[in-house]
Amino acid sequence: MPSSDLIPIYHADTGTVRELKKVIRTDEEWSQILDKPVFDVARKGGTEPAFTGAFYATKIAGLYRCACCGTDLFSSVDKFDSGTGWPSFSGPVSAMNIRTRKDSGYGMERTEVLCGLCDAHLGHVFDDGPPPTGMRYCINSASLIFFPGIITIRQE
Ligand SMILES: [Zn+2]
């Protein structure tokens, strides 16, 4: 296996970095694994309607993982009520675990946020968030699975 297939991923429950093989599946395979609403958002770049997702109002402590591959993505520690109707975070558990790219769709210039391991569409990031980062990660509930009670260990 070429080393380029391995991606360092931060594990927020243990505070360790492990190199994992990039998760690559066809749409056909994903459609068999995921519920349709999750598939439509996470694999096809859709957006769930505001105030309809499972987690926009969740305040319980815990860890949010990728609905497609289980990568640790966001912590309740960084979650805030943005009033938008989507789960909003001031940052991911680690910059390692996500990637971003320009999204010029729908006549807007936005920055798309994707899972670093499986390229699931998570949402978009904006620069109007609260301190200390000033960033607002606007994420679809459908792209997340919530694990209540998992304590997030800060990286480094
Ligand atoms: Zn993923």
Automatic annotation (TrEMBL):
Domain MsrB: 27-149
PANTHER family in the record: METHIONINE SULFOXIDE REDUCTASE (PTHR10173), METHIONINE-R-SULFOXIDE REDUCTASE B1 (PTHR10173:SF52)
Catalyzed reaction equations: L-methionyl-[protein] + [thioredoxin]-disulfide + H2O = L-methionyl-(R)-S-oxide-[protein] + [thioredoxin]-dithiol
A single GO molecular function term of this UniProt record: peptide-methionine (R)-S-oxide reductase activity
InterPro entries noted in UniProt: Met_Sox_Rdtase_MsrB, Met_Sox_Rdtase_MsrB_dom, Mss4-like_sf
PROSITE patterns to which the protein is assigned, alphabetical: MSRB (PS51790)
BP-aspect Gene Ontology terms: protein repair; response to oxidative stress
Keywords assigned: Metal-binding, Oxidoreductase, Zinc
Reported cofactor(s): Zn(2+)
Protein name: peptide-methionine (R)-S-oxide reductase
GO cellular component, one term: cytoplasm
Keyword Oxidoreductase attributed: yes
Pfam family, one: SelR
Family stated for the protein in its record: Belongs to the MsrB Met sulfoxide reductase family.
Domain of life: Archaea
EC annotation from Swiss-Prot or TrEMBL: 1.8.4.12
